[in-house]
Amino acid sequence: MKSRKKSKSKVGLAPGTSVYIGPERTTPCRITVFDYNKESCEERELATAEEAFPYRDTPTVTWLNVDGVHDVELVEKLGGHFHIHPLVLEDIVHTAQRPKVEDFDDYAYLVVRMLSRDDAGRLVTEQVSLLLGARWVLSFQEQPGDVFDPIRTRLRAGKGRLRGAGSDYLLYSLLDAVVDNYFVVFELYGEQIEEIEQRLAVAPTRELLSDIHALKRELTAVRRSVWPLREAVNALLRAESALVSPTTVTYLRDVYDHTVQVIETVEAYRETVSGLLDLYLSSISNRMNEVMKVLTIIATIFIPLTFIAGIYGMNFAFMPELNWRWGYFIVLGAMVVVVLGMLHYFRRRRWL
């Protein structure tokens, strides 16, 4: 497991003290900016936080993206210049936040969880903090790599209404990209569930049980990441903020519908996985019952044979059968008759 900065490092500190909580990272933070209007688009990578300061009051729309929040000093510099509340900065560098929306006078703060799968197929969740201003959007990610490349492509090409809309529409586009990527992740979960069902039908093994438990844990983590997002988007819709135009509210309703659909998909998958677990336990129980049935039948057949062999193994001197010429073969024949009779009885009762 990756080492993490623990939450206990914040114990006793004053509210609003920014302390990075999350996986240990040593890569340098990366700052990129898109400054655009309908006619032009400027794309740059900034070397320092100070280079981003002039973009706060431009007449154009600015998207400032920061890859890496482990550099607390960088986050505080940007937050101080854009007049971001210290409690918000504290939440940005604490990467265990649940999705939420906080509305301030001149900006809004939105936390979402971005989902992806690593090379080994394991779930990766990443906190993305979005800040909406009158003419700017700030986005903070834990590490490079995201689902926003289609938005960057649209900004460069000037296609669609993105370049001609305001910062609220940019925020909607970023949020929509995160939610749409959930469906891509869920498609992989659907394929994984189908594969487990096929393996379960062939042979339930201990490795399969481990896969079911791992999938169940991941879906629980997905539920924790997605479930509060519905409430957050709904709060953004009901806020009636001057930062969000009525036109963009219509698009946000579509994101809300997608969020509800995502939650329903998560719940359906969790129920399916729980059913797979029950099916696995039932299969193991059935296999155990089959084994016990065979052993019980064998034991039942040998009970009368053991009784007969026990009687004729007592070696009393005056047992009349000991002097019979054909006694040995008669006893063996009686044993065979008993076995055949019991097998016939078991078949009639459909125990075999």
UniProtKB/TrEMBL annotation:
Transmembrane segments: 294-314, 326-346
Domain of life of the source: Bacteria
GO annotation, cellular component aspect: plasma membrane
GO molecular function terms noted in the UniProt entry: cobalt ion binding; cobalt ion transmembrane transporter activity; magnesium ion binding; magnesium ion transmembrane transporter activity
Membrane topology category: Multi-pass membrane protein
Localization annotation: Cell membrane; Membrane
A Pfam family this chain is assigned to: CorA
Main subcellular location of this protein, as a coarse class: membrane
Keywords recorded for this protein, A-Z: Cell membrane, Ion transport, Magnesium, Membrane, Transmembrane, Transmembrane helix, Transport
Protein task: Mediates influx of magnesium ions.
Family of the protein in this entry: Belongs to the CorA metal ion transporter (MIT) (TC 1.A.35) family.
Alphabetical list of PANTHER family matching this protein: CORA FAMILY METAL ION TRANSPORTER (EUROFUNG)
Protein known as: Magnesium transport protein CorA
Lineage summary: Bacteria, Bacteria division WOR-3
